């Protein structure tokens, strides 16, 4: 903890640090809540950035500064879209930089912690889902004035399904961790759907859907709520880069309409809740139908299937390579995650028609 305190002190903070504790449930970076006194001073979130995944920290930081500064300006503009929406702020270090590179080679950064905020790994009710949808609609609206091509592509091909599938197939052939025998059913599941899952990529290549500024990691727990359960901010901005909105919508549904955890072991609990789906879509489209293109709207329901597929595929691939990307809590965790995602996808397939109906209805309202 002393080390963490001394790292946090290298940033320009208010108050005196009283504790630093592990925070959140991310699979990539390490996050800590830095509490300070007096009460009036803000608390902070200290993060060790996973630099084997995020290899260019200056570019990453550039993107975050550009996006957060733009949103802040938009929120100050007279015709603001929301009274309660806030944007998180990167805290500058005494050195003048917005990150620290320590002697051990680690990269650190500090954000303000939004006072009184909380997040949800599982969405308890449609009101939260509605708020979450609205928050991502607002986020997309507020970033729409940024030229997407001015952002660095931090993780190239992040949602490139052709590349993800070819990496998967190559991994299956190599079988580097010797785990192939246990995933025969999952491989068949992936292969049976590989063709249809190219749809969004093709729409993009053919120019039917625009490249926009997108968040690319719209897990529901990246939405901050206040004590009244109003969504007030969006966090985890590492993957904000040029992309398709369909990825953002789909990932939010994958995590925000599933009644079970992302890694639920009891597959009977995994399901898409259509009430949550409708509420999220209503909140989102209430803002986004004003600027989405027809081909975007007509693929929203599909995007939920797509994102569930591609994340399941990434978990499965990581299991096959021996758990090198996602942090795991126990052996077999990535396989358990993959199985839960594939079960969720099956449930979405069963309920795809009502999902499409819901989108049609909410898009017209
Ligand atoms: C990772 O930051 P975190 O842990 O929420 C991953 C996402 C996945 C998610 C699955 C940079 O996100 O793409 O959807 O895990 N982020 C990166 O839970 O790979
Ligand atoms: Mg993330």
Radius of gyration: 20 Å
The count of β-strands is: 9
Question: What fold name goes in the CATH topology slot of the largest domain?
Answer: Aminoglycoside 3'-phosphotransferase, Chain: A, domain 2
The major sheet is characterized as: 5 strands, antiparallel
What is the residue-mean pLDDT, rounded to a whole number? 96
Helix/sheet category: alpha+beta
Number of separate structural domains: 2
What is the string of SSEs from the N terminus onward? Answer: HEEEHEEHHHHEEEEHHHHHH
**What is the beta-strand fraction?**
5-15%
CATH C-level of the largest domain: Alpha Beta
Small-molecule binders: 2-acetamido-2-deoxy-1-O-phosphono-alpha-D-glucopyranose, magnesium ion
Order of strands in the sheet with the most strands?
1-2-3-5-4
- CATH architecture type of the largest domain: Alpha-Beta Complex
Helix content: 40-55%
Low-confidence stretches: none
Shape: globular
């Amino acid at each position: 903890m002393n080390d963490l305190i001394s790292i946090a002190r290298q940033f320009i903070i208010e108050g005196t640090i009283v504790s630093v504790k592990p925070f959140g449930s991310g699979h990539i970076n390490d996050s800590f809540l830095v509490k300070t006194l007096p009460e009036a001073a803000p608390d902070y979130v200290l993060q060790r950035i996973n630099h084997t995944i995020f290899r260019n920290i200056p570019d990453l930081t550039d993107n975050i500064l550009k996006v957060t500064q733009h949103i802040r300006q938009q929120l100050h503009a007279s015709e603001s879209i929301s009274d309660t929406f806030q944007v998180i702020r990167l805290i500058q270090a005494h050195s003048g930089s917005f990150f620290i590179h320590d002697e051990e080679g680690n990269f650190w950064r500090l954000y303000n912690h939004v006072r009184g905020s909380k997040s949800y790994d599982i969405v308890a009710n449609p009101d939260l889902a509605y708020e979450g949808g609205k928050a991502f609609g607002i986020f997309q609206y507020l970033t729409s004035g940024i030229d997407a091509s001015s952002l660095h592509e931090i993780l190239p091909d992040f949602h490139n399904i052709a590349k993800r599938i070819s990496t998967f197939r190559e991994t299956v052939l190599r079988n580097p961790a010797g785990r192939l025998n246990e995933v025969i059913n999952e491989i068949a599941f992936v292969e049976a759907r590989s063709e249809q899952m190219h749809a969004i990529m093709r729409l993009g290549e053919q120019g039917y859907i625009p490249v926009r500024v997108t968040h690319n990691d719209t897990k529901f727990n990246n939405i901050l709520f206040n004590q009244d359960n109003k969504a007030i901010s969006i966090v985890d901005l590492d993957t904000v880069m040029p992309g398709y909105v369909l990825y953002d919508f789909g990932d939010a549904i994958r995590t925000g309409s599933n009644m079970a955890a992302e890694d639920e072991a009891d597959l009977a609990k995994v399901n898409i809740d259509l009430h949550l789906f409708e509420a999220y879509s209503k909140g989102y489209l209430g803002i986004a139908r004003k600027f989405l293109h027809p081909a975007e709207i007509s693929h929203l329901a599909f995007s939920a299937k797509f994102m569930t597929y591609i994340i399941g595929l990434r978990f499965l691939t990581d299991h096959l390579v021996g758990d090198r990307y996602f942090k795991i809590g126990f052996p077999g965790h990535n396989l358990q995650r993959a199985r839960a995602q594939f079960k969720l996808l099956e449930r979405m397939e069963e309920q795809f028609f009502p999902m499409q109906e819901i989108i049609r209805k909410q898009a017209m309202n």
